[in-house]
Amino acid sequence: MAYDFAGRRPAIPLNSLMIVTGISGYIGSYVADQLLLSGHRVRGTVRTPEKGQWVRDSFGTKYDAGKSETAIISDMASPGTFDEVCK
Fold it and tell me: What are the pLDDT digits (tens) for 2-21?
């Protein structure tokens, strides 16, 4: 059983898939990095394939394969945009 630094079980089980919007930005990339360090998997949204490549390059060298992935969301306001991302 995994525990956090205070000796408690985490509220979200380790290796859970976490969604991070704007993963290529300053805050999003920091949040994703902390989640990955904590033992979670991350799926991050980006607006362009180029930004997705930056994320894959950054996290791919630091963490095991399959721990992070990206999804391209070109229009966040479009209905149903996040349906596939959240599956």
Answer: 555 567 777 888 899 999 99
The answer to whether 42 and 20 are in contact (CB under 8 A) is yes
Alpha helices by DSSP H, 1-87: 26-37, 49-60
pTM of the complete model: 0.83
> Are 20 and 28 in contact, with CB atoms under 8 Å apart?
yes
Per-residue pLDDT tens digits for 23-44: 999 999 999 999 999 899 999 9
**43 HSE (CA, 13 A, CB side):** 12
H or E stretch covering 42? strand 41-46
